Every structure is written in structure tokens, then in C-alpha cells.
Please model this.
Amino acid sequence: KLADEKVDSSHVKALFGSTARQHIQLAVSGERIFPEGGYDAGVLNNFQLSESEIDFIRSRNVLASSMFRQLEPLFIQVMSLPFDGWRVADFLDLSDYKKDFHVVEQFIGQLTIAFISGDHDLIESLRPLARTTNCLIVITLGADGSAALMKGEPTFQPSFKVKQTV
Model:
């Protein structure tokens, strides 16, 4: 929907309990490190969308979600919804999947854009998959910028230089 459109507050769900939290360490280089055991699902544990929430999602133009092991059941539920708009997924750095990009392959046919944090080796590893899909695969490279794969061909974008990483 339009950016200036008001969102009806009836579509906001409040659950009692602790908020889901991911502990993230920041390396000197600015890269994020997700420590093993650093996730607490809180109220997302066993969360299911209601019919009214599903209707709300289906009425939007873009469906965007992160994908990591703890969120996988909800991600699968959302990705299985009939939806006419763009589907965007951020697979983070695939550390939950031991850096195996086959989890991306599982959903690539449903996605418009897939984001993955990685390195130049990952770009080359994903090129064959990118040749088989209309999904734009964006590999974020931290300080090295990013690369977008469309039909297997990379387009590189250098990062903007900053004085201090916060």
C-alpha cells in the first residue's frame, strides 16, 4: 500500500510474554555474528497467524520476512499463502543452516528478491541457482558492498565509506 496510508491498529497483535530476541555480536569489521544459542523465541514460540491476519497480509503489495531456523514454521506458513505481490526474504548469513544455501533453493521459486549475507565465494556458488529463477538474489558483502544476481549475472555495488561503524 502507499507509504502515507494509515494502518488500522486492529491489525496489530499484542501478546503477553517476552519479545523474541536475537543476541548479535558486532565484529571490529562491522560484520554481525549470531552466537549459537543466542535466540529466545519468547511469544513467537508456537505463534500462528489468524484468518484476519492472513487476509491483511494478502491485501498488501509486498510480503517481507527474515528466515532463520527459529522462525522457519512461521516463514513456511507465510510463504504458503496465496499472494499476488512481491515476496522478499532475508536469509541472514545462513549460519542456522551451516552456511548451506539449499534452504534458499527450497523457497527461491516463490520469491521476488532474496537477501543473503555472504562473501565472494557465495556469489559464485549461487550463480547456477540464479540462472534458473526470476528471483533477484542479493548477496550482502559487508564492507565490500553487495552483489545482485539476475539470471546468474552479477552486478556489484561497492559499499559507501563511513567514518565509524556503529
The chain has four helices and ten strands. Residues 120-131 form the longest helix (12 residues).
